[in-house]
Amino acid sequence: METVMFVDDEKCILDALRRSLRDMTKEWDMYFVDSGKDALEIIKSIHMDVIVSDMRMPGMDGAQLLMEVMRISPFTARFILSGQSDREAVLKTVGPAHQFFSKPCDIKKMKDIIRNALALRHCLCNEELTGAISRIESLPCVPQIYLDISNELQKSEVSLERVANLVQADLGFSTKILQIVNSSFFGVPNHISDIRQAVIYLGIDIIKSLVLYVKVFHEFCSKEIPRGWLEDLMDHSLAVAKFAKIIITSGPHDKNDLDNLFTAACFHDVGKLVFFANMGKKYQETCQYMENRHCTETIAEQAIIGITHPEVGAYLIALWGLRDIIVETILFHHNPSHCYYNNYNILPILHFCDCFYYEIHPDKNPHPESSMPLDMEYLEQAGVLESLPAWRALLEKNEGITHG
Ligand SMILES: [Fe+2]
Ligand SMILES: [Fe+2]
């Protein structure tokens, strides 16, 4: 049985939830708790798959509670239930909460969202995967500077100045960020010479993802990783992020989708970095396996290591507390049709851009005969099949590719 906890200091709300969720008792083991303190006590001894907490509660409020849950039980899905008037307070939970439900809440919608969160956790927390991950010696930690920027974003008045200062505090690091911003990557019209300008030009969320990208890829590498291999992986990840950004911004889009897609693209192959840093030799055996059997990368990883790079990457990103939508986009980037719900705004774009990169850089593909195929059936289902020629033309134009 899956475990789901509801926390609210108002007894009538807990009673209403209990009544309207009665039909779920066969699927979920539910806990109804009236304070943050009691909720934490229970979570210390019973694993909770999902927690839904009220925002305003005496003593410990919802944001504080979810922050603590994130620390002691990172795989618990965290939701805030709040009244419309709590806008500002809700903003405080942007980091610790995966999603918000507004009061009065639509029970059917809440059930669907909780089911999705449970399905994702089911994919990530099965024994096979967690067993294989526990044998991996070291996983990169979420960098302090990323947490600092996330904290800044939770304040009611976000200061660009303070975000820029955080990045600038480390000179070598901010130079690397500026190098990327000024490279052909973003196509900025004029040279950007300081972080503050970069934050204004690209937005805090994109800078936040870049900060995470540079920290993780530069700092989590061992001597075992050949420089060329690491550079290729970094170039590929950033190029896919650039392609994805070009496609999503070419039409009407939601800013959250852009930010989530960009982050997912930067980290879609981070699982490979974890493999190489921890088991370089064994990971290299997967290449031999692919060559001998002409199978795809993920089939080879499954056979040799027992888990795949999308699984390890998604697990890591979930552990860092990033949003579910980013986690599942990474998890299904090689086999999008396995995604259990319609993540059609961003997953099709990442899947397409990942394949497109090797189409235009065949020299970067060490195993062209084992390439991940574009899942046309999925793209049709997602309703983007007709957009593919336009997407391709857009990216080719950007890359200066001409035909005939
Ligand atoms: Fe991949
Ligand atoms: Fe990739």
What report would you give on this structure?
- The protein is α/β, with parallel strands linked by helices and 404 residues long.
- It has 2 domains: 2-125, Rossmann fold, CATH 3.40.50; 144-398, Hypothetical protein af1432, CATH 1.10.3210.
- The protein is built from 20 helices and 5 strands.
- It has helices at 11-20, 36-45, 62-72, 87-91, 107-124, 127-134, 144-153, 160-168, 171-182, 195-202, 204-219, 227-249, 255-266, 270-293, 297-304, 309-319, 324-331, 347-360, 376-381, 388-398; strands at residues 2-7, 28-33, 50-54, 77-82, 99-102.
- It has a 5-stranded parallel sheet, sandwiched between helices.
- α7 (144-153) packs antiparallel against α8 (160-168), α10 (195-202) packs across α11 (204-219) and α14 packs antiparallel against α16 (309-319).
- The model has no long low-confidence stretch (mean pLDDT 87).
- The structure holds fe (ii) ion (FE2) (2 copies).
- Residues 236, 240, 268-269, 354 line the site of one fe (ii) ion.
- One fe (ii) ion (FE2) binds at residues 268-269, 309-310, 333-334.
